[in-house]
Amino acid sequence: MDFRKLEAFCKVFELKSFSKAGLELQLSQPTISAHVANLEEELGVPLFDRLGRTVMATQAGEVLYRGAKQVFQQVGRINSEIGLLRDMVVGDLLLGGSTIPANYILPPLLKQFLAMYPSLRVHMTIGDTDSIIRQVGQGRLELGIVGSQPEQQGISATPLHHDELVMVAAPSLLEGRDKPKTLRDLRSWPWIFRQRGSGTRRYLETMLKAAAITIGDLKVSLWVESTEAAIQCALAGLGVSVVSRLAAQPHLDRGELVCLDVLAQKLERSFYLIQRQGRELLPAASLFIEHVRNATKA
User: Fold this and answer.
1) How far apart are the C-alpha atoms of 219 and 239, rounded to whole Å?
2) Among 53, 80, 109, 237, which lies 20 to 30 A Cα-Cα from 150?
3) Please, is 188 exposed, middle or buried when counting C-beta atoms within 10 Å of its C-beta (0-12, 13-18, 19+)?
4) Calpha distance 173→241 (Å, rounded)
């Protein structure tokens, strides 16, 4: 149903005149009459009784007018809210983070950001890297921070923080075992692996491939869905795991975990701020991008 036709109908209803409605809307009387006639044809009922120069709404016209006014009021509220969003930093920011960013990078960023814009509400979704990339691509999230560069087309990515992946185990796991010198020495050790879709897992698979080792060559005892679960299982002595240094460092400092120095080189990665290309962002999202970039430079 065309809004312009509804607007013409409402003016005729209110002014009880086709000519007056035309003057108010700056349209010719034939145009107003055509709009109303099109609505009557579309709905299959007369909307007005024309008694000479007098125009009276039918029962169907009364029903349509009440509904149309509600629609226009709702549209007005929507336009007002969108205008407010564009002129002031209020409303909702739909943000996503993979495990490490959501737990270790976003909280301090959000603390500073919300202190500057206290009227904002942030809805943070936590998932693995693939899940966050997918939701940004679908438009369900405005922005995301993830642990590997997206391969999906239509997603732009800006590198932010750097992180190192480390291979860790509980000291108890090393007791009675020869000290490993290479990755191949760890093939018979129990392993704790992240699930598919994890950025950490993606980097680990690349590392194994470079050493001519497949996951099938390893003794994988546990598959877990988060970095925290991998660390807790490693702390319990359940296996070797590759995790973010950001997450593992407090446990390394306390001697609860140890690094296994078997990698030929440091396994470093970046976290990426992602958004869907071509999406028009509201001020909250644009300001958050600026905030993150400034914080990264600092």
Assistant:
1) 9
2) 109
3) exposed
4) 12
Buried-state track 211-249, b at ≥16 Cβ within 10 A, e below 16: eebeeeebeeebebebbebbbebbbeebbbbbbbbbbbe
Q: Tokens for 255?
A: 């001697």
- Region of 154 please: left (phi>0), alpha (psi -120 to 50) or beta: left
Amino acid at 253: D
Tokens of residue 129, six digits: 């890297």
User: For the whole model, what pTM was predicted?
Assistant: 0.62
For 170, which DSSP code?
Answer: -
3-class DSSP assignment, residue 110: helix
Over residues 26-63, the pLDDT tens digits come to 999 999 999 999 999 999 999 999 877 778 999 999 99
Strand residue runs (E) in the chain? 48-51, 54-57, 91-97, 120-126, 143-146, 155-169, 190-194, 219-224, 240-244, 258-259, 267-276
Q: Are 35 and 24 in contact (CB under 8 A)?
A: no
Dist. CA 71–CA 85, nearest whole Å: 21
Percent of the chain with pLDDT over 90: 47
Residue ranges of domains in the chain, CATH in brackets: 3-87 (1.10.10.10), 91-161+270-297 (3.40.190.10), 164-268 (3.40.190.10)
Residues 165-176: tens digit of each pLDDT = 899 999 999 998
- Measured between alpha carbons, how far is residue 23 from residues 4, 26, 85, 184 in Å? 15, 5, 34, 86
**Helix or strand or coil: residue 131?**
helix
| Confidence class for position 85, pLDDT limits 50, 70, 90 | low
- Cβ burial of 163 (10 Å; 0-12, 13-18, 19+) is buried
Give the tokens for residue 10: 């409402």
